[in-house]
Model the fold of this input.
Amino acid sequence: MDTKTFKKKLRLSYKKTSLIPGNCPNEITQYQGMYRIKTLTVLAEAGEFHLVFYDPTHKVHNTIPGYCWQSIGKEGTIVMPSNTGRKRITVLGFINAISLKFTSFITESNCDKFTVEIAHKELRKAYPDEKEIIVIQDNAPYNHAYAKFDSIKDLKITPLFLPTYCPNLNLIERIWKFMKNEIMRNVYYSTFNEFYHAIIDFCGNFKKYINEITSLISQKFQIFKTV
Done:
Protein backbone atom coordinates (compact mmCIF):
# COMPACT_ATOMS: atom_id res chain seq x y z
CA MET A 1 0.00 0.00 0.00
CA ASP A 2 1.46 3.36 -1.00
CA THR A 3 1.65 6.33 1.40
CA LYS A 4 -1.15 8.26 -0.32
CA THR A 5 -3.58 5.35 -0.05
CA PHE A 6 -2.55 4.70 3.57
CA LYS A 7 -3.25 8.33 4.60
CA LYS A 8 -6.57 8.24 2.78
CA LYS A 9 -7.66 5.15 4.69
CA LEU A 10 -6.75 6.86 7.96
CA ARG A 11 -8.72 9.92 6.83
CA LEU A 12 -5.66 12.14 7.16
CA SER A 13 -5.20 15.47 5.44
CA TYR A 14 -2.32 17.94 5.41
CA LYS A 15 -3.72 21.18 6.89
CA LYS A 16 -2.88 24.05 9.17
CA THR A 17 -3.29 23.58 12.91
CA SER A 18 -5.58 25.86 14.93
CA LEU A 19 -5.00 27.63 18.24
CA ILE A 20 -6.94 27.97 21.47
CA PRO A 21 -5.92 29.79 24.68
CA GLY A 22 -3.37 27.71 26.58
CA ASN A 23 -5.26 28.05 29.87
CA CYS A 24 -8.72 27.54 28.43
CA PRO A 25 -11.12 25.92 30.94
CA ASN A 26 -12.76 22.57 30.29
CA GLU A 27 -15.78 22.22 28.06
CA ILE A 28 -18.23 21.97 30.97
CA THR A 29 -17.14 25.39 32.25
CA GLN A 30 -17.47 26.86 28.76
CA TYR A 31 -20.98 25.41 28.35
CA GLN A 32 -21.99 26.84 31.73
CA GLY A 33 -20.81 30.26 30.60
CA MET A 34 -22.69 29.90 27.33
CA TYR A 35 -25.98 28.94 29.02
CA ARG A 36 -25.64 31.85 31.41
CA ILE A 37 -25.31 34.19 28.43
CA LYS A 38 -28.33 32.64 26.74
CA THR A 39 -30.41 33.09 29.90
CA LEU A 40 -29.39 36.74 30.19
CA THR A 41 -30.19 37.27 26.51
CA VAL A 42 -33.76 36.07 27.03
CA LEU A 43 -34.19 38.45 29.96
CA ALA A 44 -32.68 41.32 27.99
CA GLU A 45 -35.06 40.65 25.11
CA ALA A 46 -37.91 40.95 27.62
CA GLY A 47 -36.63 44.40 28.58
CA GLU A 48 -35.27 43.56 32.03
CA PHE A 49 -31.95 45.29 31.33
CA HIS A 50 -29.49 46.16 28.55
CA LEU A 51 -27.01 43.40 27.75
CA VAL A 52 -23.71 44.36 26.13
CA PHE A 53 -20.43 42.61 25.41
CA TYR A 54 -17.26 44.60 25.95
CA ASP A 55 -13.55 44.37 25.27
CA PRO A 56 -10.73 46.71 24.20
CA THR A 57 -8.80 46.07 21.01
CA HIS A 58 -5.39 47.45 20.15
CA LYS A 59 -4.84 48.24 16.49
CA VAL A 60 -1.25 48.73 15.33
CA HIS A 61 -0.54 51.11 12.46
CA ASN A 62 0.80 48.55 10.04
CA THR A 63 -0.29 46.55 7.03
CA ILE A 64 -1.85 43.17 7.72
CA PRO A 65 -1.28 40.74 4.82
CA GLY A 66 -4.12 38.45 3.88
CA TYR A 67 -5.46 36.19 1.19
CA CYS A 68 -6.67 37.71 -2.10
CA TRP A 69 -6.82 36.72 -5.76
CA GLN A 70 -3.38 37.07 -7.35
CA SER A 71 -1.52 35.86 -10.40
CA ILE A 72 -0.02 32.39 -10.22
CA GLY A 73 3.66 32.13 -9.31
CA LYS A 74 6.05 34.01 -7.07
CA GLU A 75 6.36 36.85 -9.57
CA GLY A 76 2.60 37.35 -9.43
CA THR A 77 2.47 37.83 -5.65
CA ILE A 78 1.30 41.31 -4.67
CA VAL A 79 3.84 43.17 -2.56
CA MET A 80 2.47 45.76 -0.16
CA PRO A 81 4.36 48.46 1.78
CA SER A 82 4.42 48.39 5.56
CA ASN A 83 4.84 50.90 8.37
CA THR A 84 7.06 50.96 11.44
CA GLY A 85 4.31 49.51 13.69
CA ARG A 86 5.38 51.82 16.51
CA LYS A 87 2.05 53.56 16.97
CA ARG A 88 -1.31 52.06 17.80
CA ILE A 89 -4.88 52.94 18.65
CA THR A 90 -6.95 51.45 21.45
CA VAL A 91 -10.68 51.02 20.88
CA LEU A 92 -12.86 50.14 23.86
CA GLY A 93 -16.08 48.81 22.37
CA PHE A 94 -19.49 47.62 23.50
CA ILE A 95 -21.97 45.68 21.34
CA ASN A 96 -25.58 45.26 22.43
CA ALA A 97 -26.54 41.61 22.06
CA ILE A 98 -30.17 42.48 21.22
CA SER A 99 -30.26 45.78 19.32
CA LEU A 100 -26.70 45.51 17.91
CA LYS A 101 -26.10 49.07 19.07
CA PHE A 102 -22.36 49.78 19.07
CA THR A 103 -20.67 52.17 21.49
CA SER A 104 -16.97 52.94 21.54
CA PHE A 105 -14.26 55.08 23.06
CA ILE A 106 -11.09 55.59 21.01
CA THR A 107 -7.74 56.65 22.42
CA GLU A 108 -4.03 56.59 21.64
CA SER A 109 -3.30 55.85 25.31
CA ASN A 110 -2.82 52.44 26.86
CA CYS A 111 -5.80 50.74 28.45
CA ASP A 112 -6.03 51.04 32.23
CA LYS A 113 -8.77 51.29 34.86
CA PHE A 114 -9.18 55.04 34.25
CA THR A 115 -9.56 54.58 30.50
CA VAL A 116 -12.12 51.85 31.19
CA GLU A 117 -13.98 54.26 33.47
CA ILE A 118 -14.21 56.89 30.71
CA ALA A 119 -15.46 54.26 28.24
CA HIS A 120 -18.18 53.12 30.64
CA LYS A 121 -19.32 56.71 31.11
CA GLU A 122 -19.68 56.94 27.33
CA LEU A 123 -21.68 53.71 27.43
CA ARG A 124 -24.08 55.16 30.00
CA LYS A 125 -24.58 58.27 27.82
CA ALA A 126 -25.64 55.97 25.00
CA TYR A 127 -28.38 54.51 27.23
CA PRO A 128 -30.02 57.55 28.93
CA ASP A 129 -33.05 55.55 30.16
CA GLU A 130 -31.07 54.63 33.31
CA LYS A 131 -32.04 50.97 32.95
CA GLU A 132 -29.40 48.62 34.34
CA ILE A 133 -26.64 47.70 31.89
CA ILE A 134 -25.04 44.29 32.28
CA VAL A 135 -21.57 44.26 30.73
CA ILE A 136 -20.12 40.87 29.80
CA GLN A 137 -16.33 41.03 29.71
CA ASP A 138 -13.10 39.15 30.20
CA ASN A 139 -10.88 39.02 33.28
CA ALA A 140 -8.27 41.63 32.35
CA PRO A 141 -6.82 43.26 35.51
CA TYR A 142 -8.02 46.73 34.51
CA ASN A 143 -11.58 45.43 34.17
CA HIS A 144 -11.52 43.99 37.68
CA ALA A 145 -9.89 47.17 38.99
CA TYR A 146 -12.61 49.38 37.51
CA ALA A 147 -15.34 47.04 38.80
CA LYS A 148 -14.34 48.15 42.32
CA PHE A 149 -14.90 51.86 41.54
CA ASP A 150 -17.93 53.49 43.16
CA SER A 151 -18.75 55.20 39.86
CA ILE A 152 -19.77 51.92 38.25
CA LYS A 153 -22.63 51.65 40.75
CA ASP A 154 -23.62 55.27 40.14
CA LEU A 155 -23.85 54.49 36.43
CA LYS A 156 -26.08 51.46 37.15
CA ILE A 157 -23.66 49.19 35.34
CA THR A 158 -23.16 45.59 36.47
CA PRO A 159 -19.99 43.81 35.31
CA LEU A 160 -20.27 40.12 34.53
CA PHE A 161 -17.01 38.27 34.06
CA LEU A 162 -16.66 35.37 31.64
CA PRO A 163 -14.80 32.19 32.57
CA THR A 164 -11.08 32.86 32.22
CA TYR A 165 -9.52 32.51 28.77
CA CYS A 166 -12.82 32.23 26.90
CA PRO A 167 -12.74 34.80 24.06
CA ASN A 168 -15.06 32.42 22.20
CA LEU A 169 -17.89 33.53 24.51
CA ASN A 170 -17.39 37.26 24.01
CA LEU A 171 -19.43 38.53 21.04
CA ILE A 172 -17.36 41.72 20.71
CA GLU A 173 -14.43 39.59 19.54
CA ARG A 174 -16.39 38.92 16.35
CA ILE A 175 -16.65 42.67 15.76
CA TRP A 176 -12.90 43.14 16.14
CA LYS A 177 -12.19 40.33 13.68
CA PHE A 178 -14.65 41.83 11.20
CA MET A 179 -13.11 45.28 11.71
CA LYS A 180 -9.63 43.94 10.93
CA ASN A 181 -10.84 42.22 7.78
CA GLU A 182 -12.86 45.22 6.64
CA ILE A 183 -10.45 48.12 7.08
CA MET A 184 -6.99 46.69 7.80
CA ARG A 185 -6.28 43.47 5.93
CA ASN A 186 -4.40 44.17 2.69
CA VAL A 187 -4.84 47.92 3.23
CA TYR A 188 -1.90 50.31 3.49
CA TYR A 189 -2.30 53.61 5.35
CA SER A 190 0.73 55.76 4.60
CA THR A 191 0.15 58.02 7.59
CA PHE A 192 -1.04 57.40 11.13
CA ASN A 193 -3.70 60.08 10.61
CA GLU A 194 -5.23 58.09 7.73
CA PHE A 195 -5.19 54.96 9.86
CA TYR A 196 -6.79 56.78 12.80
CA HIS A 197 -9.59 58.20 10.67
CA ALA A 198 -10.30 54.79 9.11
CA ILE A 199 -10.99 53.45 12.60
CA ILE A 200 -13.03 56.55 13.49
CA ASP A 201 -15.09 56.03 10.33
CA PHE A 202 -15.70 52.35 11.10
CA CYS A 203 -16.88 53.06 14.64
CA GLY A 204 -18.85 56.17 13.73
CA ASN A 205 -20.63 54.59 10.76
CA PHE A 206 -21.26 51.18 12.24
CA LYS A 207 -24.78 50.96 10.82
CA LYS A 208 -23.50 50.65 7.25
CA TYR A 209 -22.18 47.20 8.19
CA ILE A 210 -25.41 46.11 9.87
CA ASN A 211 -26.12 43.25 7.43
CA GLU A 212 -22.76 41.64 8.10
CA ILE A 213 -22.98 42.34 11.84
CA THR A 214 -26.45 40.77 12.08
CA SER A 215 -25.09 37.49 10.75
CA LEU A 216 -22.07 37.66 13.08
CA ILE A 217 -23.87 38.39 16.34
CA SER A 218 -25.76 35.17 16.92
CA GLN A 219 -26.15 32.85 19.89
CA LYS A 220 -24.01 30.20 18.22
CA PHE A 221 -20.85 29.85 20.28
CA GLN A 222 -17.76 27.82 19.53
CA ILE A 223 -16.76 25.56 22.40
CA PHE A 224 -13.04 24.88 22.49
CA LYS A 225 -12.12 21.21 22.69
CA THR A 226 -9.66 20.86 25.54
CA VAL A 227 -7.24 18.02 26.21
